[in-house]
Amino acid sequence: MTNPFEDPEGTYLVLTNDEGQHSLWPAVVEVPSGWTVLLSEADHQSCLDFIERSWVDMRPRSLVVAMESDAGSERL
After folding, report:
1. Under a CB-based contact definition with an 8 Å cutoff, are residues 39 and 48 in contact?
2. Architecture of domain 11-68
3. Which is higher by pLDDT, 2 or 12?
4. Is 72 a residue whose pLDDT tops 80?
5. Could you please report the per-residue DSSP string of the chain?
6. What is the pLDDT of residue 74?
């Protein structure tokens, strides 16, 4: 049996968490707590293409906020 996380013929979801991080997730596996579906069932390549287009800033959301806060305090 093929690993559902590596099945090129499988159907996948694109998930995101509170930090804005994305994950390619097999549609046959339950979505873990703390993750939200961004893209419903699609083929492997379509999901990868979606992630490439939509996840352009790889920094976790908390880091972006901290950096913006630090930059704002430097201006004072």
Report:
1. no
2. Alpha-Beta Complex (3.90)
3. 12
4. no
5. ---TTS-TTSEEEEEEETT--EEEEETTSPPPTTEEEEEEEEEHHHHHHHHHHH----S-HHHHHHHHHHHHHHT-
6. 63
